TrEMBL record:
InterPro entries reported in the protein's UniProt record: NAD(P)-bd_dom_sf, ODC_Mu_crystall, ODC_N
Name of the featured protein: Cyclodeaminase
A single GO cellular-component term on record: cytoplasm
SUPFAM superfamilies on file: NAD(P)-binding Rossmann-fold domains
Pfam families: OCD_Mu_crystall
Gene behind this protein: arcB
Length: 318
């Protein structure tokens, strides 16, 4: 059994086209029915404002499968500690023996989440998309834009966050990367000219409404990943010409379909991202269509990125 820690994993795995292809292949396998993926095991630790998720999946033909344990303790920053942590246990898919433990402290989860956002944009946004609005200014806000640049020629980023000073600081970092960037005081102003909107907040109340969206925009919502979280108002879901999610079951329990599912009112068109990739579906009938992708995070992404990480780490070790 091998042990790997965050620094070594980070040196081996980043946001690049090979990593993107690995996660995309995992989604495609899910869409073809070649994945065993049980529901998320989730446990709340309310007295510490914490939660723990366990995700896993087996991709048929893959040499290994991963079981990821992902704690989130959201008061930790007050203690000078990160709010997210975790590790991945990687097993042989042939013998069931433990091959590796990836003490990545949540790094691989952040990477595969960002890559999933890029994959959603690749298949759902207009190819000429250049201007991006990001709601949120945390780690995932930064990584989503970095990953998006693998598939779209981003020129400008408009940022909104609840703390305007955080949005301003993020905009300055984007400018240092050669992008035009501006922080805004309102969601409407940030989204006014967007080709792609990315929501990256832990909000429990909708922050994005249909009236704030321009024609032809694509929305990737990745902040809602547990019961009670919501970023999109129902008006956005009803406006979308196509609503795509990583898995419908998770979107209905952990994601943006929660409210509609509780009332038995799903959007008229719901697709899963893996099927879109595997079947080559084109869901845009017009440049003016609005598309939405809800990403709650899946075990297949974890197994895909874990296999990729071990292959990269083996190369580094050779």
């Amino acid at each position: 059994m091998q042990l790997f820690y965050r620094d070594a994993i980070r040196q081996a795995v980043g946001l690049d086209l090979e990593a993107l292809a690995a996660v995309e292949a995992g989604f495609a396998a899910l869409g073809r029915g070649e994945v065993v993926q049980p529901p998320i095991l989730s446990m709340a630790i309310e007295e510490a404002n914490g939660e723990v998720d366990v995700k896993t999946a087996h991709i048929r033909g893959a040499p290994r499968f991963a079981i990821k344990v992902s704690p989130g303790f959201f008061d930790n920053p007050k203690l000078g500690l990160p709010s997210l942590n975790g590790l991945m246990l990687v097993f042989s898919a042939r013998t069931g023996l433990v091959e590796a433990v990836l003490f990545d402290e949540g790094y691989l989860t952040a990477v595969r989440t960002a890559l999933a956002g890029a994959i959603a944009a690749k298949y759902l946004s207009r190819p000429d998309s250049r201007r991006v609005a990001v709601l949120g200014a945390g780690e995932q806000a930064e990584l989503q834009v970095q990953a998006l640049r693998l598939v779209r020629e981003v020129e400008r980023v408009d940022v909104w966050a609840r703390r305007h000073e955080a949005a301003q600081a993020y905009a300055r970092r984007l400018e240092d990367q050669g992008l035009e960037a501006r922080a805004h005081d309102s969601v409407a102003a940030a989204c006014a000219s967007a080709d792609i909107v990315i929501t990256t907040t832990p909000s429990r109340r909708p922050i994005l409404h249909a009236g704030e969206l321009p024609e032809g925009v694509h929305i990737t919502a990745m902040g809602s990943d547990s019961p009670g979280k919501r970023e999109l108002d129902e008006s956005v879901l009803h406006l979308a010409g196509a609503f795509v999610c990583d898995t419908r079951a998770q979107s209905e329990t952990n994601g943006e379909l929660q409210a509609l599912a509780a009332r038995g009112e799903p959007p008229s068109s719901v697709y899963e991202l893996g099927r879109v990739i595997a079947e080559g579906w084109q869901l845009r009938n017009s440049p003016r269509d609005i598309t939405v992708c809800d990403l709650t995070g899946t075990g297949v992404q974890d197994t895909a990125i874990a296999n990729f990480a071990l292959e990269r780490l083996a190369r580094v070790g050779d």
